[in-house]
Amino acid sequence: MMNSKASEIAALLKTEKYNPEIIPQLESYLESQVQQNVDTTDSPASPYDSNANRTLVKLYQFFPQNAQAQYIVLAAALALVYGTATKEGSLDFGSLGCLINESMKKEEPYPTLIRCADLLDSCQFSEFWSVFHSIENNSGDYEMVSKLSKSFHAKSALRKSILNTLSLSFKSTKLSYVLGQLDFEKDNESEVLLKGESDVVEQFNDASDSIIFTDNIENTKRNKVNLEGGIDYGMIRGLVMSNQVKRATAE
Question: Can you name the residues that pair with 172 across neighbouring β-strands?
Fold first, then answer.
């Protein structure tokens, strides 16, 4: 269910989408998406609104005199973290980048965000987390981006996305391997996440170091990946991109 602010913005975009006078409202809405995601671990994450954020960046493109770098970088950071949960998948971050000036992309933390997106797309998850954790130190004056990178909700969204990607390739594998890909130790936090993803995880067992994913069209139509034989990240990336394109063109 939409909150009141989200409903207000949705109504505004139906009639005033190309009106520069709505920029302050979109900036405030963007900040609210970030602010509500960084302060606590137990409050629900506020909704990520790719349409509103993309509209804001488009308006900056049309009216460059109104553009503010802090909001452009915030929109990109949100697309990186939460865009994987939308029907566009990681295409969300890339498509938003097409609206952003190349000179801005050369200044931190944007290069770090790009590197994170590349590592996610190539399924190099362990390296991704190392680079993602560096956002805090590379954010400079972009305080909200730094806070977002430390947010419980941001990390949870990324972990769920990575877990879903792994489920496309594996029917079963070692629990320790999956936890490593999720940047987890064996602790209560990881158990809560895995139990909460029952649509992806069928069962897991610490004692036997095993995890079984629920059946999906990808992990059941061919032999499961043999962990000892190595992982074909190109294959996994192909599966992910194929599913993203299907979702993006479904409507």
Answer: 212
Full pLDDT tens readout for the chain, 251 residues: 567 889 999 999 999 999 999 999 999 999 988 866 666 665 555 689 999 999 999 999 999 999 999 999 999 999 999 987 654 445 789 999 999 999 999 999 999 999 999 999 999 999 999 999 999 999 999 999 998 999 888 999 999 999 999 999 899 999 999 999 999 976 788 999 999 999 999 999 999 999 999 999 888 875 555 454 455 555 565 555 555 545 444 44
Query: Residue written as tokens 């947010």?
Result: 151
Dist. CA 146–CA 234, nearest whole Å: 31
Distance CA 27, CA 32 (A): 9
State the Cα–Cα distance between residues 86 and 230, nearest whole angstrom.
Answer: 30
Q: Taking the CA atoms of the chain, what radius of gyration do you get in angstroms?
A: 19
The one-letter amino acid code at 5 reads K
Beta strands in the chain (DSSP E): 172-174, 201-205, 210-213
From the list 63, 146, 143, 103, the residue with the least C-alpha distance to 26 is 63
Tokens 């269910």, located at residue: 1
With left for phi above 0 and alpha for psi between -120 and 50, is residue 89 left, alpha or beta? left
Task: Classify burial at 167, counting beta carbons within 10 Å of its beta carbon; exposed 0-12, middle 13-18, buried 19 or more.
Answer: buried
Chain-centre distance of CA 69, in angstroms? Answer: 21
If phi over 0 gives left and psi between -120 and 50 gives alpha, with beta otherwise, what is residue 49?
beta
User: Whose CA is closest to 175, among 153, 156, 157, 201?
Assistant: 201
